[in-house]
Amino acid sequence: MAWALRPRTRRKAAGPHRRDDDAPAPVDWLGRALDCRRCDVGVRQADARCALSHACVHDRYARRVERFFQWNPQAADDWLEHPYFEVRATAARHASLFRLRSVFDDLDETVRTVVAERVPRRLLGRFVHDPHREVRIRVAQRLEPQALAVLRSDRDYGVRAWVARRATQGILLEMTRDPDPLVRAEVARRLNVAALHVLATDPDMDVRRVVASRARPSVLGLLARDARWEVRWEVANRASRAVAEGLAEDPEEEVRIAATGRLAELKSGEAGEPGD
Q1: How far apart are alpha carbons 137 and 143 in whole angstroms?
Q2: pTM (2 d.p.)
């Protein structure tokens, strides 16, 4: 196998061999002790820089693998087939884009996640249905907003949450019925104010609080009668004079305090009436 240790020819050490503080002993991905005398790095690249216990492509410790590729980024293409996923993933961060096709279908999700972070957007479609959520999250973070409809019904709420943070208004409107309240809350933070009434009766209190923090006066009037005092408190902080006067008599003290403060703001002219 190409990765097997072979007698080295010539290797440049970057400095004295030093071990990271509190880091594990230098062993390979199978737990075998490393021996520079049997390293094949010099055979692959005569001018490679490395240091045992600090920057080594054969080390199981990911930080040392990363240092190796930071010192030798030009060598990354040659390590994409290594059996240890950390080596493949780190090499993929530094490898030529033209060589990444060889790891598109890598068995490890860490490698595929790196690929999804780096490939041109036009190639992201092949990762939309990847079995691992982290890969699909990277896709959701990179796709053009108008192309995110393909992920709006993803089985993982974390993926859908990223869609809600970036998608166009048309896609957001379709996501107001998402089954997860965390996703609907993200939708409420970005949905056009004119459409927020759709979420004013959401079953989740946190979603209604987000709506109350952004909604128009007509929706605030509805939320002023919400069963949860936390929602009414949000309303009180933005309410019109009429709504604030009503909330100044609210049974919950925190709501009354907020409403009284809002009325004082309106009276002094420090805050205007919420606009339609």
Answers
A1: 10
A2: 0.85
Q: Measuring CA to CA, which residue among 100, 102, 97, 159 is closest to residue 128?
A: 159
Q: Distance between CA atoms of 268 and 256, rounded to whole angstroms?
A: 18
What would the pLDDT profile of 138-181 be if each residue is shown by its tens digit?
Answer: 999 999 999 999 999 999 999 999 999 999 999 999 999 999 99
CA distances from 186 to 114, 160, 175, 190 (A): 26, 9, 10, 7
Task: Give helix 133-142 / helix 109-118 axis angle, nearest 10°.
Answer: 10
With respect to residue 54, please indicate whether it lies within any of the assigned structural domains: yes
Under DSSP, the state recorded for 50 is E
Give the Cβ contact number of residue 248 at 10 Å: 18
- For residues 206-219, average pLDDT: 97
CA dist 3 and 79 (Å) reads 8
Q: Are residues 82 and 134 in the same domain?
A: no
Range of the domain at 5: 1-112
One domain for residues 234 and 198: yes
Quote the tokens at residue 45. Answer: 């690249």
Q: Record the tokens describing residue 91, joined without a space.
A: 């090499």
Dihedral over Cα of 98, 104, 107, 111: its sign: positive
State how many domains the chain has.
3
